[in-house]
Automatic annotation (TrEMBL):
InterPro entries: Hexapep, Hexapep_transf_CS, LbH_SAT, Ser_O-AcTrfase, Trimer_LpxA-like_sf
Organism field: Aporhodopirellula aestuarii
One Pfam family hit: Hexapep
Lineage summary: Bacteria, Pseudomonadati, Planctomycetota, Planctomycetia, Pirellulales
Top-level division of the source organism's lineage: Bacteria
PROSITE patterns registered for this protein in UniProt: HEXAPEP_TRANSFERASES
Annotated protein name in UniProt: Serine acetyltransferase
Length: 186
């Protein structure tokens, strides 16, 4: 658990160290510890650790703490790789069947969950009902990724998009329902 938290911290430290080169590692660690964006990730990492060690009650209590303190509902049953960054807290919902790779950036108001409708819950042939997100993916504010869709590595989901189909690697998806197109190189 500590190794994964170190990766989450490292990502932020790199980001802020370039902006504040005079900031010592200790002061930076204290500053980062005060950020709710980091706190929500640390609470998730702890709850995930308890979940993996079969202490489900503590995991659930930490999940509830995360909702109450950070207004983020990140299930301890979700599998999330190292280097997760939540850009702003509030309204983030990540369901228990979701898988997220390394170094992903998630903005406020994002929902990653199942596609529940009157015809029931949409499931993939491998029984997945929630999204699988690759590495280095950015998911913009208010976006929803619903059902067993696969979001490729380095893809971006635009703000307020509703993704119900797979996004190829490196593509950008925008709109409702989201349409994917290759990313425009800067
Ligand atoms: C989708 C996104 C990744 C695209 O970035 P980009 O590749 O640099 O694209 P551009 O800004 O050049 O826009 C390309 C086109 O998509 C449109 N577009 C951009 N973002 C859009 C969105 N979220 N929804 C619908 N259309 C969008 C633009 O209007 C433009 O349309 P046009 O080609 O008809 O002129 C980016 O716009 C985005 O939504 N990022 C999330 C940012 C965020 O959540 N910020 C929160 C800050 S708190």
């Amino acid at each position: 658990m500590l190794d994964v938290i170190k990766c989450d911290l490292k990502k932020r430290r790199e980001k802020y160290a370039s902006r504040f080169p005079m900031l010592s590692a200790l002061r930076l660690a204290v500053a980062v510890a005060l950020l709710p964006q980091l706190r929500t990730v640390v609470i998730y990492r702890m709850s995930r650790w308890f979940r993996m060690h079969h202490v489900g009650l503590v995991a659930r209590m930490l999940d509830v703490l995360n909702i109450q303190v950070c207004h983020c509902e990140i299930s301890s049953m979700a599998e999330i790789g190292p280097g997760l960054e939540i850009a702003h807290v509030g309204g983030v919902v990540i369901g228990g069947g979701t898988r997220i790779g390394s170094n992903c950036l998630i903005f406020q108001g994002v929902t990653l969950g199942n596609a529940y409708g009157p015809r029931g819950i949409k499931a993939a042939s491998d029984k997945r009902i929630q999204p699988t997100i690759g590495n280095d993916v950015t998911i913009g504010a208010g976006a929803m990724v619903l059902g067993p869709v696969i979001v490729g590595n380095n893809a971006s989901v635009g703000a307020n998009a509703v993704v119900v189909d797979d996004i190829p690697e490196g593509f950008v998806a925008i709109g409702v329902p989201a349409v994917s197109r290759p990313a425009v190189k800067a």
